[in-house]
Amino acid sequence: MSIAIFIFISTYLFIVFGIIHRTLAALIGAVAMLALGVLGPEEAFYAIDFDTVGILVGMMTIVGITRKTGVFEFLAIKAAQRLRPGPLKYSLQYA
Known about the structure:
This protein is mainly alpha-helical and 95 residues long. It contains 6 helices and no strands. Helix 1 (2-17) runs antiparallel to helix 2 (22-35).
């Protein structure tokens, strides 16, 4: 149990501090769990939620394609124009 907690915390710290890419950190953590015998291959397979993996892959594909069109930048500019931000306006409001 303590090995699993150590692997989890180590992987989490690698991801939070950006020491290595988060995908690589997750894969290294998964391999460490298998290599050290914390989980068996069958347990690891049944621990995967393929519905969640499918949704994430689909969303990342849509966002990747949409990002190339510039729609996010367009929406950010339109939102900023509509709000008409100004430093004096907000500093007086919260003073």
